[in-house]
Amino acid sequence: MHTLKIGDKFTSELIVEEKHTAAAFGSGNILVFSTPMMIGLMENAALNCAQSGLESVYSTVGTFLDVKHIAATPVGHKVTATAELLEIDGKKLLFKVEAYDEVEKIGDGTHGRYIINAEKFLERVNNKSNKK
């Protein structure tokens, strides 16, 4: 099913644009990198870390986040998020996630993901439409 191992890492990055700000996202009214976007970048790093060790029929879904956003980042700065695989418990994966801008650490925490068979997962999800 996978070739994942403790210590696997992946990094995602972006340049903060106005569309990534708290004001644009609706999570605040200031033009700084938003917490939801930071979390999304951290999740992206974890997703790609996991995906790199999975067979193509498998994917992962996020199950929890425990993250602190500790410093603000202005528009125009690069943000880098890193996910490091800490634990593998069957299909459960635990990642250490961190984010940095060009000056300092801006966030850290843990993120859980769960390995799924993508086709079977979507079949179950789509069956919800039949139950409305």
UniProtKB/TrEMBL annotation:
Residues 16-119 form the Fluoroacetyl-CoA-specific thioesterase-like domain. It holds the Pfam family FlK. InterPro entries: FlK, FlK-like_dom, HotDog_dom_sf. This is Thioesterase family protein.
